[in-house]
Write a structure and sequence with these properties.
Blueprint lengths: L1 H14 L9 H11 L19 H31 L5 H34 L7 H10 L7 H16 L12 H12 L1 H4 L21 H7 L24 H6 L11 H13 L5 H21 L3 H4 L4 H4 L3 H8 L10 H21 L6 H33 L1
Helix pairs in contact: 1-2, 3-4, 3-5, 3-11, 4-5, 4-6, 5-7, 6-7, 7-17, 11-15, 12-15, 12-16, 15-17, 16-17
Length: about 400
């Protein structure tokens, strides 16, 4: 790595003040600090207290936590492709097909997002932040494999400009940037990101009776089926027997967005985030707990089959686990107070199930629930702080 550092150092004078590429210094500095620690310190004299983690290390920790979802997602894209076309394939064949579909989406996400961020940094002359390193991976993972690349580029541009840079850049955004990209496509091009479009078929034709519907789409179709005999038959008429079994959905071997199908992979990522102190276990537990409690309440009401679905199924269908682990825990747009994190997470889980059951037009409720609670996170923190002040004042007057 020394020769790379020397290469950066040899051209640094061109980007420093007075150099011929002075205005592009933010781009140079951004690339250098990805590989090497900056040479700047907070002072020349006195004691320097340094933390073990900074923004760059935090972002790379989140990326490492997403790797299990990415790798499994690549395999599942290929697996669903061959399952849909009725062709036998090896593990390598499945992974190759998945990689050929997923990697271009990742490349487009990073190329467009970083391109916009670098351009804005040059215009505003401020340093490049590492915030988009995570967003650039999150955007592909919340997309179906069949999404057109130009839509990925358009959604990425919209999210970076409107949801991030318009608010001042990394650390200033109110809404989760990756979910804003998905929400943009959800409302601008619904036919390409909702319904039965979740399996990449290429030039092949699906086998007879194959639909490619996600479990949430199947559940939404049963919402008016009040006379159904048994809740256990909710996914029983699906195109492939056993694919919507609870443990199969927990593993994630089903149609869905690239990185969100496997609850198991999401929990592995959650363990990495929690053990490293990057993600809040309170928010994650709150989302799962809120969803389960709301599902349990609906079981008691039981007006339709979707309400009667066992509450634990809400954990493994759709993107609840992925949203709880990687989206709801966003340290910028989430609640900051410890009590507020519980309230924030529980309300996300509750609202997710409410949207799923009562609004079949938007069966994937976790996206809207997180964006909605992003807006209310500062308000939650405000009331938590005010309540703490009142308690302390009461103790002081006793």
């Amino acid at each position: 790595m020394k020769f790379i550092q020397n290469a950066f150092d040899s051209i640094e004078h061109h980007f420093e003040k007075g150099g011929k590429w002075e205005k592009f210094y933010p781009i140079y500095e951004g690339h250098r600090t990805i590989l090497f620690a900056p040479k700047l310190t907070t002072g020349k004299t006195g004691v320097q207290v340094r933390d073990a983690i900074d923004l760059k290390r935090m972002m790379f920790t989140v990326i490492i936590a997403m790797i299990p979802c990415l790798i499994f997602g690549m395999w599942n894209v290929g697996h669903q492709h061959f399952l849909a076309t009725g062709v036998e394939a090896t593990l390598a064949d499945k992974f190759l097909i998945g990689a050929l579909k997923v990697i271009p989406i990742v490349i487009v996400s990073y190329a467009v997002g970083l391109g916009i961020e670098f351009a804005i940094c040059v215009i505003r002359q401020h340093p490049v932040n590492e915030g988009y390193l995570v967003t650039g991976m999150l955007i592909p993972l919340v997309m179906p494999a069949s999404i057109p690349l130009w839509q990925v580029a358009l959604a990425t541009a919209f999210a970076v400009i409107i949801a991030k840079e318009a608010f001042g850049g990394t650390g200033m955004n109110v809404l989760n940037v990756a979910l804003t990209a998905r929400a943009f496509l959800y409302f601008a091009y619904p036919s390409d990101i909702s319904g039965e479009v979740w399996t990449f078929l290429g030039d092949a034709q699906p086998i007879a009776a194959y639909s490619g519907a996600t479990p949430l789409a199947i559940g939404a179709e049963t919402i008016d089926n009040i006379n159904s005999a048994s809740v256990t038959s909710l996914f029983g008429d699906a195109w492939s027997a056993g694919i919507f079994d609870f443990w199969n959905m927990f593993l994630g071997v089903m149609p869905g967005s690239i990185g969100e199908t496997s609850t198991l992979m999401c929990l592995i990522g959650a363990a990495i985030l929690v053990l490293t102190g990057v993600g809040s276990w309170k928010i994650i537990a709150g989302v799962f707990g809120g969803a389960y409690a709301m599902g349990l309440i609906f079981n008691l009401i039981g007006a339709n089959q979707f309400m009667l679905m066992p509450p634990e199924y809400h954990w493994v269908i759709g993107g609840l686990a992925f949203g709880a682990v990687f989206m709801a825990t966003d340290p910028v747009s989430a609640a900051q107070t410890e009590t507020g994190k519980w309230v924030y997470g529980i309300l996300i889980g509750v609202i997710t199930v409410l949207i799923r059951v009562f609004n079949p037009a938007y069966p994937e409720g976790i996206m809207l629930a997180i964006l909605f609670m992003n807006v209310f996170a500062p308000l939650i923190d405000y009331y938590v702080v005010e309540a703490n002040k009142k308690r302390r004042l009461q103790r002081a007057t006793v």
